[in-house]
Every structure is written in structure tokens, then in C-alpha cells.
Design brief:
About 40% of the residues lie in helices and about 20% in strands. By secondary structure, the protein is α/β, with parallel strands linked by helices. Helix 5 packs antiparallel against helix 11. The longest helix has 17 residues.
Length: about 350
């Protein structure tokens, strides 16, 4: 069972703070049979798209559920709201910390300013932020990944699989994080077969325009790339990627998923025969490990990076068409070993 929380909150205060949370984003909580202010653990606040994106946010939720099951404490997960400000995000995180949740994790780079502000107010609470390494504080863990390494392997898989010598990349938003996915993918394709053309595009310039949350945008972009003869399409766009996968399935070309193993996602089951593989990053493991460190009274802080060497990024093998292709697997494994050894330097921009 969980150690006594660093922050004790009376029942009346908890109720009023729950109302504050509701004002700045929907929340759901779950717990074991014992619910007290001293029995609260991990809380996460979702990025754009929220729970149900079959990708990034759902992976964070999986880590939360693992912690909840293992440690037997109350958890919370909070949805974003349209048009919210950094101040709204900070209020959400601070409310969770004030209620006694620990650690409190902002899922996505957009929480950087909010995590910094909340962490200053609650120095005895451990905060985490996924996909950002700019918050340098004693009580903050920056949970980041070498997405370019998994994307390189996705590029190898695409170059080996294409029959038209045209493959596609769709990024959700034109930002440095998504540039990592694009750079690794394009390098993997180029190193594998320089005759293969990569058609690349970003859906929007800002997240507020829906680049990570609009399946219709992903679908339209994929259809445009298919018209240009792309027969393998890799999409790093959160919820928008579902539209790209739908378009790939309808046109009988391959899709490569992202973040989670999208072949195994129930909501995408009718399209899974078209999902060759997914470039995964183990957000669930990262979230869980931070919760575990707090539970063990040795909170992990600073920059915590997952990469191919740690096994926290890679390619999924759920699709037997992909997993049973011995030639393709050999090529990918060779590339993986070279990246880990340093023989291949994967670009991040």
C-alpha cells in the first residue's frame, strides 16, 4: 500500500478542488476500496486528443492503470479542453497536486510552462512531463524519447516494402518534435534504397488548428499521397493518424502506426490488416516507472530518455505479415544494431 502522502487534504477541500478541476477539464478517477486523502498516487493530464486517441494519450493511460493495479491507490486522469491557456493547464496540475496526487504528469510538450509553474508551487510533489526536456527543476522528470530511432526503422521497413518506390510521411504539426519523426523516417528510407521517394507533409502549423486531433485531416492527406503513388504511409499525428490508417485500408496500401502498437488497438481492428507495423515509444512504461520511483520514495527527476538501447522505442511485431517476413526482419535488426552501436547516427532534424 502507498506511503503517507506528502500533502494531506481534508475531504471538504478535496470536493471543492474537484469542482475546480471540472472547470478546466473533465476528469475521471478510480481507486481501490480504500479512498482517503493519504491514498492518492499517480495523476495524468492528457494532451490534445485526450484518452481514446489509440496512440500517445492511451499509452499514458495504460501506465496509469498499471500503477493503480500494482500500488492499490487512487489515480486521476484529466481531459484537455478546447482553447485552454497555459494558466488553465497550470491550474489543472496544481489542483491535482493540492489534492495529494503524486506524481502528477502532463502528457505532452504543451504542458512545459504549466509543469514549471505548478512544480514551483508544490516543491514536495514530483511532476513529470512527456516529450519535453526544457523544464529543469529538482522535482520534475522530463520523460523524453529518441523517436527518430524508431522512425528510422520505420523508414527501413517502408523502403523494403514499397512496390511503387513512393512512400509517405504525415506529421501532425510542424514542430521540432514531429521533425524528429520525419528526419528519422526519411533517413531510414534513403539509407535503405535511395531510389525510393518520400512524400512528406504536415497537417497544420499549430496544434490549435487540429493537427493532432482531426482524423479527417489525416485521411485527406493520406488520400493525396496515395494519388501520388505512395503505397506505404507513416503518420505521426496522434488522433489524426486514425484517418490516415482508414485511407490506407480503403485503398489497399500499407500504413505504419505510431506511439502505440496500433495493430493491436481495438478501435482500429477493422483496419489492422493494413497496419504493417508501428513505430512505438513506451510512454506507458515511462509513466509507470516514474510512479514506481515515487512509491519507492526515490523519485526519478531530470531528463529520462527512452531509446532503442533501453527498449523504450522500436517497431511492433503484432502483424504476422510483418513479423514473419524473415528478410525484412533481418534488415531491420541489422539497422537496429548499428544504431545502438553508433555505426548509424540518426538525424533528429
Amino acid at each position: 500500500m502507498r506511503r503517507i502522502s506528502r500533502i494531506t487534504v481534508a475531504g471538504a477541500a478535496t470536493a471543492s478542488l474537484a469542482l475546480a478541476l471540472a472547470a478546466c477539464g473533465g476528469t475521471s478517477t478510480s481507486s481501490s476500496s480504500s479512498e482517503s486523502a493519504e491514498d492518492k498516487g499517480l495523476a495524468i493530464a492528457y494532451d490534445v486528443g485526450g484518452r481514446g486517441d489509440q496512440s500517445f494519450n492511451d499509452a499514458a493511460y495504460a501506465g496509469l492503470k498499471q500503477a493503480e493495479k500494482e500500488f492499490g491507490y487512487k489515480t486521476a486522469d484529466v481531459e484537455p479542453t478546447d482553447g485552454e491557456t497555459d494558466a488553465d493547464k497550470e491550474q489543472r496540475l496544481a489542483s491535482l497536486a493540492k489534492q495529494g496526487y503524486d506524481p502528477v504528469i502532463g502528457v505532452g510538450y504543451a504542458y512545459a510552462a504549466a509543469v514549471k509553474g505548478a512544480a514551483e508551487k508544490y516543491p514536495d510533489t514530483t511532476f513529470g512531463i512527456v516529450d519535453d526536456s526544457t523544464v529543469e527543476m529538482d522535482n520534475v522528470a522530463d520523460l523524453v524519447f529518441s523517436e527518430e530511432e524508431a522512425s528510422y526503422l520505420a523508414g527501413v521497413a517502408a523502403a523494403e516494402t514499397t512496390k511503387t518506390d513512393v512512400v509517405g510521411f504525415i506529421g501532425g504539426v510542424d514542430i521540432p518534435l514531429i521533425h524528429k519523426f520525419r528526419a528519422g523516417f526519411e533517413q531510414g528510407v534513403e539509407d535503405t534504397d535511395p531510389d525510393v521517394k518520400v512524400v512528406s507533409q504536415f497537417l497544420t502549423q499549430t496544434a490549435e488548428e487540429g493537427g493532432f486531433s482531426s482524423p479527417d485531416k489525416g485521411k485527406a492527406a493520406a488520400e493525396g499521397q496515395i494519388e501520388k503513388k505512395a503505397d506505404v504511409i507513416y503518420t505521426a499525428a496522434g488522433l489524426s493518424g486514425q484517418g490516415a490508417i482508414e485511407a490506407a485500408s480503403a485503398n489497399k496500401v500499407w500504413a505504419i502506426g505510431v506511439d502505440s502498437d496500433q495493430y493491436a488497438q481495438e478501435a482500429l481492428a477493422k483496419y489492422k490488416a493494413s497496419i504493417l507495423t508501428s513505430a512505438t515509444k513506451d510512454v506507458a512504461k515511462s509513466v509507470y516507472k516514474l510512479a514506481q520511483s515515487v512509491e519507492d520514495k526515490s523519485p526519478r527527476t531530470g531528463v529520462l530518455r527512452g531509446d532503442l538501447a533501453s527498449g523504450e522505442v522500436g517497431l511492433s511485431n503484432s502483424n504476422p505479415v510483418f513479423a514473419d517476413n524473415a528478410k525484412l526482419q533481418d534488415v531491420i535488426e541489422t539497422a537496429k544494431k548499428k544504431i545502438i552501436s553508433g555505426d548509424i547516427k540518426v538525424q533528429s532534424s
